[in-house]
């Protein structure tokens, strides 16, 4: 009897510790109404951070140090050209026919004159580069954000954007080599290039707040709102006992296109494509 009791004690302690952890995580969910799954999200954020530090960041640093600047520019232009077609399709689905036609025009010019997109001739001609995805299309169609949600390996999303993620992954990779080895190499290069382009944002995310998780979450949600409203989000009112009539200004374009965007996508950002 004594031996059995002693054997069960460590298990009971482990179970008690697990329940305590869950309880603490549950208490954390009350902090931000946009993040009701904060306990899970923080755990997944830590997992993604660990994988990034062990795998993607070292590869990105090596690529950044070895690849010449013209090569990195050509790689970014090539993948950006593929994404322009998906952007154009989403603009058409959102009812923005002019923007969609312009996006498709960019693809035609860069694919031909720009030699398969290696050179961004369209931008040099003054054609604006846009960034649209299926998550934004669902938002235009009236689908609400849903809770904040950290996707394994892919980082911060809203629930709506997580549902749209498979379509975005397919739409941004519609050109794939038939050979499996070449396809895997191309996918790996895209991931490493995207992560390398965000190396400069690491320090901003680390120094931006004592709570890096909350910093990335808040910037992501603000940036996402900025994108959905095409850079002109309405001003939000917020309830605060200290200032009930004040308004909180939306994120500014300088934040959206600068360090903030890199910081909010820091978690394994190599799996998502930043702006080029």
From TrEMBL:
<dbReference type="GO" id="GO:0016020">
    <property type="term" value="C:membrane"/>
</dbReference>
<feature type="signal peptide">
    <location>
        <begin position="1"/>
        <end position="30"/>
    </location>
</feature>
<keyword id="KW-0449">Lipoprotein</keyword>
<dbReference type="Pfam" id="PF04333">
    <property type="entry name" value="MlaA"/>
</dbReference>
<comment type="similarity">
    <text>Belongs to the MlaA family.</text>
</comment>
<dbReference type="GO" id="GO:0120010">
    <property type="term" value="P:intermembrane phospholipid transfer"/>
</dbReference>
<dbReference type="InterPro" id="IPR007428">
    <property type="entry name" value="MlaA"/>
</dbReference>
<protein>
    <submittedName>
        <fullName>VacJ family lipoprotein</fullName>
    </submittedName>
</protein>
<keyword id="KW-0732">Signal</keyword>
């Amino acid at each position: 009897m004594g031996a059995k009791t002693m054997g069960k004690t460590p298990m009971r302690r482990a179970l008690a510790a697990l329940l305590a952890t869950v309880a603490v995580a549950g208490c954390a969910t009350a902090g931000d109404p946009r993040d009701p799954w904060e306990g899970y999200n923080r755990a997944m954020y830590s997992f993604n951070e660990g994988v990034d530090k062990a795998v993607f960041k070292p590869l990105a640093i090596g690529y950044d140090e070895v690849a010449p600047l013209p090569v990195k520019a050509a790689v970014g232009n090539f993948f950006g050209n593929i994404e322009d077609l998906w952007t154009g399709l989403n603009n058409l689905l959102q009812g923005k026919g002019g923007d969609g036609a312009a996006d498709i025009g960019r693809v035609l010019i860069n694919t031909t004159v720009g030699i398969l997109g290696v050179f961004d001739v369209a931008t040099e001609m003054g054609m604006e580069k846009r960034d649209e995805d299926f998550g934004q299309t669902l938002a235009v169609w009236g689908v609400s954000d849903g809770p904040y949600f950290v996707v394994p390996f892919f980082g911060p999303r809203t629930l709506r954007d997580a549902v749209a993620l498979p379509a975005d992954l397919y739409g941004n990779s519609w050109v794939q080599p038939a050979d499996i080895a070449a396809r895997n190499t191309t996918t790996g290069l895209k991931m490493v290039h995207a992560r390398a382009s965000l190396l400069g944002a690491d320090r901003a995310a680390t120094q931006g707040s004592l709570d890096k998780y909350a910093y990335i979450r808040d910037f992501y949600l603000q940036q996402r709102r900025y994108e959905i409203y095409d850079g002109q989000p309405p001003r939000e009112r917020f309830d605060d006992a200290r200032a009930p009539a004040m308004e909180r200004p939306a994120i500014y374009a300088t934040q959206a296109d600068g360090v903030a965007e890199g910081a909010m996508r820091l978690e394994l950002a190599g799996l998502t494509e930043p702006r080029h």
